[in-house]
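User: Design a sequence. Structure:
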């Protein structure tokens, strides 16, 4: 045996170099198999060490490679460790400012212009609100809420007192007079030529009550409001006041002036009646405006009064009138 191909150990043993090389090759194959995840038994590892160099070089079959366990995919990067960073403290959160409450505004005006009358030489405007009507002039306070600031031919300006806010009521269908006819006549306006019309045409309209002076408790009776006007009358709103403790309204019906026109009314059990009426055409009047039927409740002196009235002629022009005296009757048992 060639001594150059053998290795002598200190204990006297000799081993062939080829066997050592084959053993090392088998150990390398086993280590590679373990790194690839193959399951080798002790016998297979021992056999692999004893195999020849040709067997150690045999490639692993594709079937065994297919049995390798699947590896988990690499996850997404969670950040760049070398990105630029700011070490300044974060800005404090912006303070939340509560929005300012909305500015209060005046409610819409619930009044409308119903007409105009002349009282003691001053032109007054008649305002209607539901079944109530009010006669006002500049500077007066309306229901402690509004102040009448100005009256112009086209509008009435109010001031809403709680907010000191101005509001306007437009005038529809007519133009308001800013001065009474007497005041206009006494102004510095140039004198007019004498009119050929009768003087009765410029007289204010006359109103009067007709009814019994004494009535029996429990028995109905009628009260009629009559009108005499040389100027054509077209429409009116009016309000009556009565003593609700003594009288109870039973019926309200139009007189001959509005028999062929429109007539509506509302009764307030507290003691008032609101009437709105219009004729088909404006004509001079000497007729009944309305008839009210009452039932006397108990004995006493009952009174019926015209609270407000606005006579309107052609094109809605106001007609001056003289308010009638209150109607009074005695109720007996």
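Assistant: Done.
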């Amino acid at each position: 045996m060639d001594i150059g191909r053998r290795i002598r150990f200190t204990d006297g043993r000799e081993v062939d170099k080829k066997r050592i090389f084959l053993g090392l090759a088998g150990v390398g194959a086993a280590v590679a198999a373990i790194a690839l995840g193959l399951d080798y038994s002790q016998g297979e590892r021992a056999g692999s060490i004893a195999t020849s160099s040709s067997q150690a070089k045999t490639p692993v079959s594709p079937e065994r490679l297919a049995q390798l366990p699947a590896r988990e995919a690499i996850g997404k990067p969670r950040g760049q460790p070398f990105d630029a960073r700011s070490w300044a403290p974060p800005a404090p959160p912006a303070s939340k400012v509560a929005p300012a409450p909305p500015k209060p505004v005046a409610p819409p005006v619930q009044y409308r212009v119903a007409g105009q009358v002349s009282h003691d030489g001053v032109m007054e405007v008649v305002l209607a609100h539901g079944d109530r009507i009010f006669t006002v002039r500049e500077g007066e306070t309306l229901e402690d809420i509004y102040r009448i600031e100005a009256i112009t031919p086209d509008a009435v300006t109010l001031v809403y007192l709680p907010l000191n806010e101005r509001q306007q009521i437009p005038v529809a269908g007519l133009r308001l007079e800013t001065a009474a006819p007497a005041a206009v006549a006494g102004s510095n306006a140039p004198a007019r030529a004498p009119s050929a019309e009768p003087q009765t045409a410029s007289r204010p309209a006359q109103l009067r009550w007709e009814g019994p002076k004494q009535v029996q408790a429990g028995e109905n009776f009628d009260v009629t409001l009559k009108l005499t006007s040389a100027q054509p009358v077209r429409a009116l709103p009016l309000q009556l006041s009565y003593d609700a403790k003594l009288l109870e309204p039973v019926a309200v019906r139009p007189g001959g002036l509005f028999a062929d026109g429109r007539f509506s009314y509302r009764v307030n059990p507290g003691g008032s009646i609101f009437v709105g009426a219009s004729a088909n055409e404006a004509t001079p009047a000497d007729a009944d405006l309305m008839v009210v039927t009452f039932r006397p409740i108990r004995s006493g002196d009952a009174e019926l009064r015209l609270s407000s009235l606005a006579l309107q002629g052609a094109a809605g022009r106001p007609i001056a009138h003289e308010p009638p005296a209150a109607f009074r009757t005695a109720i007996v048992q």
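The CA atoms of residues 305 and 326 lie 5 Å apart. The chain has a mean pLDDT of 75.
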